[in-house]
Every structure is written in structure tokens, then in C-alpha cells.
Amino acid sequence: xxxxxxxxxxxxxxxxxxxxxxxxxxxxxxxxxxxxxxxxxxxxxxxxxxxxxxxxxxxxxxxxxxxxxxxxxxxxxxxxxxxxxxxxxxxxxxxxxxxxxxxxxxxxxxxxxxxxxxxxxxxxxxxxxxxxxxxxxxxxxxxxxxxxxxxxxxxxxxxxxxxxxxxxxxxxxxxxxxxxxxxxxxxxxxxxxxxxxxxxxxxxxxxxxxxxxxxxxxxxxxxxxxxxxxxxxxxxxxxxxxxxxxxxxxxxxxxxxxxxxxxxxxxxxxxxxxx
Length: 275
Known about the structure:
Blueprint: H1 18-29, H2 31-36, E1 37-43, E2 53-57, E3 66-73, E4 78-86, H3 94-100, E5 119-126, H4 142-146, H5 171-179, H6 182-185, E6 195-204, E7 215-226, E8 230-241, E9 247-258
Antiparallel strand pairs: 1-4, 1-6, 2-3, 3-4, 5-7, 6-9, 7-8, 8-9
């Protein structure tokens, strides 16, 4: 499929790179980063297996709670740009700025049945145990991920090593947790079509999230957008404690579907839009 769409190989999923930023941001903000940190990223170019990626974080001035982050390939090709911030006062994150600049899309075909404000599920239960397979999208376990993760930490598997007395879910795996019951959301996306992550923000509000802890998730479509090649729907997933009362974390994700991968899409006359 990747070759047919003009890619050299299957792309690495964007949040995989989030793990590279964690030790850098922990060096800047310490324990508070895991409890109240936010990484807000716009993906710029795909990365395929075997390519090297370097992550960078600009050192902020003393006391600052916001900085710039980015990643690039070995040849300097940009991979992503991001804002990193420490709550509760994050200011405008990178993706909040991008959302504010979106223009209304033209005629949507893949997303014709979606509307801003649609919600998915009434609070689906989610959790991540060490040896739990994470569904059809992620047919692997946390332990299998930790055997290959780019930047590992004892905090991901050893409860006695963490300040909270619990093993924590890695930042990139928060994306997996938030996607665990995504099919149950029932958003009527037409297909089949190839989907990619175009923008993603993971924000800890009362973090971190813990391995083996039950949570509830609620999803809402907050924007629809379009570019020359894609149709996109932006979903805010809010992760609560098991009682559904305390907000623990949020993920904002731009699901971009490639127009030329959908048989029902016109091959000519595609309207432009905000990239």
C-alpha cells in the first residue's frame, strides 16, 4: 500500500518520536513534566524504518514554562515541530494556534458524514497492563514496546523507582491508550482510505497515567479541515479517572485521510485547503 501511494516503505507512527523528547524535557522541568507537561506537535515529513531521527529542545530561560522543540532526520529533513509547555497555564500551544487558523473545508467525501461536536462513546473504559495487547491498531503489548523503545526509563516498568510508587505509561503509549477503543466511538468515516497522523498533542493535567490503572475516555470531534491531498478530522480525547470525575490527560489528534487512497474521491478538481 505504501509503495502504491508513492512511499518508499511504511511510515513510522508519529508519536514514536515523542519518547525522544521525554528525557530532554525531564531535564528542564523534572518531575513536574510528567505530571503537567504538554507536547504539541505538527508532523512535517514521514519517517520510515531504518532512518535516524534526532530530537531537539530549546533551553528556556529560568522559570519559563514554555519552549520550542523539533526533530529532524540525519540529513536535516524536518520531521516535526512542536511546542512543549508546563501547565496549568500553557498559553497557546502549537496546535491551538493551528486550529485557530483553519479555514472551512470544501466538499468532503471521506468525511461527509462527520460534524464538529460529534461525540464518541459515553465514557469507554480503558487501561494498559504490561502484557495486554492493545487492539487491532496496536497488536503488541507494553512490555514488547519497552523492549524496543527509543528512550527507555525504569519508571515505565519498576514501581519502586518512581516518585509515585507506580509504573507510568510512556508518553508515546498514551497515544496507544487513547486509541484503544477508537472503533467504539463510531465516527462514520467513509472508506477504505489510508489514514495518517498529521498533528498531535498530548497534555497531562493530573498525571502521569499509570500502568494497570483503569480510566474512562470521552472523544469529541473539534474541527474538520482539508488540504490538497487530505481530508482531516480533529478529535479531542479526554482521559478521566475510573469514576469519570477527574480529568487526568487529553490528546488532540488530527486524523488525515489521503484522498487518492479512497476510491470514491474525484481524481480531478480536488479543492485546496489549509495544509
